[in-house]
Amino acid sequence: AVLGELDLTESAGKPKHIEVLELQSILPELDNAAMEEPDEVSRLSEHNIDDLFSSAAVRHLFDDLHGRIMKGGKDIWRKIARKSITYYSPKRVFAYVDVQKQGLRFTVFTGGKKINGVEPIDYERGGEKWGRFMVKKRSDFSQTLRTLKASHERILAAINRGEKTGWFAEREQ
To answer: In 3D, which of 63, 156, 61 has the Cα closest to residue 111?
Structure first.
């Protein structure tokens, strides 16, 4: 058989101890844990959410808010990282949560456009399409949920348009 420019026939002098595998047949068997729904993850994260919280009050705030965020749709999932929590759709992260002493700092995708209550990021260091806001009390939940919904919708629309959405992505002119 010929694979690209590489001749893999026995007569090509291929060592007998090397097994040639067709990647197309192997790929379906590989894990893709980052894209699995949280209830179906095949392996547990190496990070523990409890390690992120030093304040019981902020933990209760997060737990209450998290339940409301997850009611926003079946295509919103959470992942625990070493220093933060992310919310993502099947394709991309649209919100990062940094646990702080006084509350939760969200960094959300804005697409470079204003979202009520979200402060733009310092553009000299990236983040042109991202913004931040704080959640310190339950009375912030209503605005937070509207903001997260807008962020989620914006990142899905940007993906559909083929736009770059990462930290260093620049706004389209």
So the answer is: 156
